[in-house]
Specification:
heterotrimer, A alpha+beta (375), B mainly alpha (266), C mainly alpha (295), B: 266 residues, mainly alpha, MetI-like fold, C: 295 residues, 15 helices
């Protein structure tokens, strides 16, 4: 799908404030706390993702923004307005559901026009709007079709068109791509990003797929067990994880557990027992003697380069050729498996399963974070 | 292998006998209509005639009873279907204590003998100085037919995806608009089915009606009274007409239902 | 509960739903039943005496039944015959339900179900009436049996309980077949194969695998059939003779011939208790809840 350059579906006011503020919200169901106290501001026009495993509370947050759930404490503000007394159907949001929730008994056009119909918009105007939206999602002329006649990707687009038809200030997307196959999913990522750019409205996206979150988002909030772990742009999130969870959940990572030996001016040293003692960047509050984890990305580990300061002796167990790069599984002498990624040029015939090798990394590439029991 | 073959033939034989048992009475009743005999029978055969249809057509009481049945059945349909729909909506929405008790209570009219439904209605309304007749028949029949409607609607509601309602709300629909535009169209086939069933249940009811009918006579009551007094093959003629009408209706209904299922499966 | 309804349907519709349910449950289900019970404990009085000194609760209406040996024997006959009808219906229905659920191809099953449903759509009175024709003294069944030489003179099918029971099995068979069919159908075919594979014979497979699985269906079918049989008025009225009266007919007579509604209410309440007792018994035997029955 490509959007006409001068395209504007509706008059999404660029001046309009469509920020979302979660003002110290808490959500409890009985004794269970689904979302712990969260204070977060999502900017106007931002593509913002909540990333986390299922059950981490991300969908609960979406439901609080959409108005399907009322926070136990705190309030949601949209465009600066307190939403506490505003029911779901009066909020300037619209939602794209995981199962899309297209109305099966209505035609495609009726689906798209539904939001306008319930607002009392006249038939002719509705028709105009649905035609424009169908054009936006590259499905012109499909208005009279039944929903059941559409393919998965087409349904996806209709769901987007339907949600956009009501001119929301904030579009809420609840894992909308999870039902699609891999190829279509990657294609739809680009389309969603494009639509967001064209319309300029705030997108709040829920996913457990880090690839989706990292490729589309301006900022990502990583969540675990009802708690925000880190809110950052994708690059920061990847390079400078703030918590052990964020470090292990976003991207591939190797975690080495140990005890903090020293902390000095942003640098820390961790004692990983028989594996060795390693320096790394300090993240957050850690103190000497505390349990902590050192994280090092597979692509930051080099092999057979003695000029680096941190060394681990290991035996290669498995090599996978992935095209431009290779992944290695190396087992250290104390039976800790590490994942290593090297570029194809670094490959030599000596790299065979069973061969011994020295793994090394630069201290500035490693981070040392408190905790990390689940790693 | 041999015992399997015997078993298979045994099953076939059983199925055959079973359907013979199911349909012979209806066929014999139909044939007896055309027997030129004063009593409805097929043996001995006294020659073919169509005169019992004439006798039937000239039976004014029968036509009155038919009219009464139709009025009552429409009355039941109009009252029982909304009640049943409301119960199903209630059960599919609420959670928590008391629900299973209410469910049992709503089911209880189906597990109560029809005569008792009739008797309790008769006694209750006597206290309010309403005596037997069409109105009371509608009320008494509604008591249990509403429960049938409830079960039918509930079966469809259980397959309803409630995110559709959330979707409608998220698009700005009020709860009434959501109900009107999303849930009600979804329930429509079940409501139509339930209405047809309610109509037929009312039309053919005897046990309950007998106690609350007062001086009004429904067609079923009329047939029963004819069987016991003044039995002629005119009753068969009436039966045959009703059977053909119901079979026609049943086949149309079943075919329609099947084609709907097919559409849904697509 | 109102809150949950109002959240989904809005206040107005929620109130309407509750009002409709209240009208039905209170006005048509609960209060009439309670009043019937109340009635059954009061003596049959002239209108002028109601509210007077004679209008007090007593067990007199119930004593009438236990002092009337004919009524009592009809009461027990009704129970016994209804149990027999239930059992016969189960026996006849089980093989067919099993065939439909597990043996027949989907096409065959669909056809059979359609064939089963057609007579069900036809009025109970008419279905019973057709048996009246068949079983008549000079009817086709006797003619057939005579012609075959199986009997020497016609049998009076309609003078005993036999005719009533044949008619009842016929009238209520679908209320047994469909619950059975639904229950057996949900059984995984592999379980049957596994049982066979482990060397279980057909009888053992049914006894140990299929019947235990079909318990809720058997319970539902038995409850419905018993309730319909014990509460039937049409079938005994059409196919019975004065010598084979049913308890419902006695009740009817109290209302419309004896003119003693209080007495009739007591009899009706006993019939209701009988049915409730049977339901409770079946649910205990089969260890199923009321929730299973609706399916």
């Amino acid at each position: 799908m490509s959007l006409p350059g001068n395209y504007s579906v509706v008059n999404w006011g660029e001046m309009m404030d469509s920020s979302v503020h979660l003002d110290n919200v808490v959500m409890r169901f009985g004794h269970f706390t689904a979302v712990q106290k969260t204070d977060l501001k999502i900017e106007s026009g931002e593509f913002f993702s909540f990333l986390g495993p299922s059950g981490c509370g991300k969908t609960t947050i979406l439901n609080m923004i959409s108005g399907f759930l009322d926070p136990t404490e705190g309030a949601v503000h949209i465009g600066g307005r307190d939403m506490r007394s505003v029911p779901a159907n009066k909020r300037p949001t619209s939602m794209i559901f995981q199962n899309l929730a297209l109305f099966p008994l209505m035609t495609v056009a009726e689906n798209i026009e539904f939001g306008l119909e319930v607002r009392g918009v006249k038939k002719a105007e509705r028709k105009k709007a649905s035609d424009r939206l169908l054009e936006l999602v590259a499905l012109s002329g499909s208005g009279k079709k039944k929903v059941s006649e559409l393919s998965g990707g087409q349904k996806q687009r209709i769901a987007i068109a339907r949600a956009l038809a009501v001119e929301p200030q904030v579009l809420l997307l609840d894992e909308p791509l999870s039902a699609l196959d891999l190829k279509l999913r990657q294609h739809m990522r680009a389309e969603l990003k494009e639509i967001q750019r064209k319309t300029g409205i705030t997108f709040i996206y829920i996913t457990h797929d880090q690839g989706e979150a990292l490729t589309m988002s301006d900022r990502v909030a990583v969540m675990s067990a009802g708690k925000l772990q880190q809110v950052a742009d994708p690059i920061t999130l990847y390079r400078e994880p703030a918590t052990a969870f964020a470090a292990s959940f976003v991207g591939e990572n190797n975690g080495l557990k140990g005890t903090v030996k020293s902390v000095d001016n942003g640098q820390a040293v961790i004692d990983c027992g028989p594996l060795g003692i390693f320096p790394g960047k300090q993240v957050g509050n850690i103190s000497v003697g505390e349990q902590a984890t050192l994280f090092i990305r597979p692509e930051q580990i080099s092999i057979n380069q003695s000029n680096q300061s941190a060394h681990i002796e290991a035996k290669i167990e498995e090599i996978n050729f992935e095209g431009s790069y290779l992944t290695l599984n190396a087992n250290t002498d104390c039976d800790r498996s590490l994942s290593v990624q090297i570029s194809s040029e670094q490959y030599t015939d000596a790299l065979v399963p069973g061969a011994r090798t020295t793994l090394s990394f630069r201290p500035e590439d490693a981070v040392i974070i408190a905790g990390g029991d689940h790693v | 292998m041999k015992s399997e073959t015997i078993l298979r033939w045994g099953v076939r034989f059983y199925i055959g006998v079973f359907f013979l048992y199911l349909f012979t009475p209806l066929i014999i009743m139909g044939i007896a209509t055309f027997n030129d005999s004063r009593f409805p029978t097929v043996s001995p055969w006294k020659g073919a005639t169509l005169k019992w249809f004439d006798v039937l057509a000239q039976d004014g009481a029968m036509w009155d009873a038919l009219l009464t049945s139709v009025i009552v059945a429409f009355g039941v349909l109009v009252v029982a279907v909304p009640i049943g729909v409301c119960c199903a909506l209630f059960l599919s929405t609420v959670q928590g204590r008391g629900k299973s008790f209410l469910y049992s209570l709503m089911m209880s009219p189906l597990l109560t003998p029809g005569v008792i439904v009739g008797i309790s209605t008769l006694i209750f309304w006597k206290g309010l100085s309403v005596s037997g007749g069409m109105v009371l028949t509608v009320i008494a029949q509604t008591t249990f037919i509403a429960a049938y409607v409830m079960l039918m609607i509930l079966a469809r509601l259980q397959r309803f995806d409630r995110t559709l309602e959330h979707a409608a709300q998220s698009l700005g629909a009020t709860s009434w608009q959501t109900f009107r535009r999303v849930l009600l169209p979804y329930l429509k086939p079940a409501i139509v089915s339930a209405a047809v069933i309610a109509f037929l249940q009312s039309f053919e009811n005897y046990n309950t009606t007998l106690f609350v009918k007062g001086y009004d006579t429904t067609l079923t009551v009329y047939i029963a009274s004819k069987v016991r007094t003044g039995l002629t093959p005119a009753v068969n003629a009436l039966g045959l007409v009703m059977i053909l009408a119901t079979v026609l209706l049943a086949v149309v209904y079943e075919i329609k239902k099947r084609s709907e299922v097919r559409v849904v499966k697509l | 509960m109102y809150k949950q309804l109002a959240e989904r349907f809005g206040g107005g519709l929620a109130a309407g739903i509750i009002a409709m349910i209240a009208i039905w449950l209170l006005g048509m289900v609960i209060l009439p039943q309670l009043l019937m019970v109340d009635y059954s404990f009061r003596p049959n009085l002239l209108p002028s005496e109601i509210g007077g000194p004679k209008d007090s609760y007593s067990l007199i209406n119930y004593e009438t039944l236990f002092n009337n040996s004919i009524h009592l024997s009809i009461f027990f006959k009704t129970i016994w015959s209804s149990v027999l009808v239930t059992f016969l219906t189960l026996l006849v229905s089980y093989p067919l339900a099993y065939y439909l659920a597990k043996v027949a191809t989907p096409k065959q099953a669909a056809l059979c179900i359609l064939l089963l449903i057609i007579p069900f759509w036809i009025n109970e009175i008419l279905r019973t009436f057709s048996w009246y024709i068949i079983l008549a003294y000079k009817g086709p069944l006797n003619a057939l049996l005579l012609a075959l030489g199986w009997i020497d003179r016609p049998v009076r099918f309609l003078s005993g309980d036999g005719g009533v029971m044949i008619g009842m099995v016929y009238a209520y068979i679908l209320f047994m077949i469909f619950p059975l069919y639904n229950a057996i159908e949900s059984l995984d075919l592999n379980q049957i194969k596994a049982a066979r594979n482990l060397g279980a014979g057909w009888i053992r497979t049914h006894y140990r695998v299929i019947i235990p699985h079909a318990k809720p269906g058997i319970a539902t079918g038995c409850i419905m059939t018993f309730m319909l049989a014990a509460g039937s008025y049409a079938v005994p009225a059409l196919l019975g003779s004065p010598g084979s009266r049913w308890f419902t007919q006695i009740i009817y007579n109290w209302f419309f011939e004896g003119g003693n509604w209080n007495q009739g209410a007591a009899y009706a309440f006993l019939l209701l208790i009988l049915c409730i007792g049977f339901i409770a018994l079946i649910m205990k035997i089969f260890k199923v809840g009321l929730g299973d029955i609706a399916k």
